[in-house]
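Hello forum,

I keep getting stuck at the same step: I have a sequence, I want structure tokens, and every attempt I make locally crashes halfway through. Rather than fight my setup again tonight, could one of you with a working pipeline run this one for me? It's a single chain of 343 residues.
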Amino acid sequence: MRIETHSVAPVGWDAYVASHAAATAYHSAAAVEIGRAAFGLKALFLVARGEHDRIVGILPLVEQSSLLFGRFLVSLPFVMYGGVLANDEDVASALAIHAGELGRQRGADHVELRHTRPMEGLAFPERLDKVSMVLGLPRSLDALAKQLGSKLRSQVRRAEREKPQVAWGGVELVPDFYRVFAMSMHALGTPVYPQRFFEVVCTALGGSAAVLVIRAYGSVQAAAIVVHHPDRIEVPWAAATATAKQSALNMRMYWELLCHAVSAGAQAFDFGRSSVDSGTYRFKAQWGARPMQLHWHYWLPEGAAVPHLNHSNLKYALAGRAWRLMPLRCANLLGPHIARHLP
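Reply #2:
Ran it on my machine without issues. Output:
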């Protein structure tokens, strides 16, 4: 077996992704290039080859750097999933170790590999503080309504008083989505991605991505972007105004998302990543979603600690508090210049 490093996806990359049971929409070559297309970041495509030069494993990486958090390689930043796809554990470990060597060569502070399962035999430190919240889906909308129960159904019906207008589309709806999303990120104290990032995502993922917009009171009140994976539909980005939450339009949005997933024949709906027992965790759990453990593995230089580039990091938390005090217009101007450095 030999491992190659490419700056663009080699021939056979997407065919291997399509054949692998653990692949996600984010493993496609076009999706790996999202960081480059949106922010000019360096993408690396690691390929393991076996007999007759056959691909037996892949690992996509994106390099990021910032004055605050240093230089790092991630598989994959900006999205939920990434990491190694391989024919067996030996190939997977070899690709991960090679990624660590690349990190060492490039002077990285760490390499982060985002997996949905442990990597047996790999001596990398592991973070276990994140889960995906996943709801198994029935085959019909009637069965979905019964599964959710009367309390949730009544909240969804509450939104009907506001006469919501529901629209599904693609990249043409990104500006509507972005207006609500930018406000929501500011309230959380998190720098927002530029609108162009979401346009790039929708373009790169093609038919695997869709945008939902809920309008009421003459403006957009809730919006989401969904991503179709082979066995499930995920909502990596969703937002609602304060008014939407008061009038249950956010609940109507999630009902529409679930109906979309059932109608598409998805086996499960992925509500996205959460910290256990956080507010978002509890919100997702009320829909019946169950936690699926995420396994983030790290190559680190000797003596380095596992990074926490989130609000559990004091520097990040203090910056978040200051960000919330900044006027929204300023935050929307400055946020995209910062968000490109965050994984």
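The mean pLDDT is 90. If your local run keeps crashing, start a new thread with the error log.
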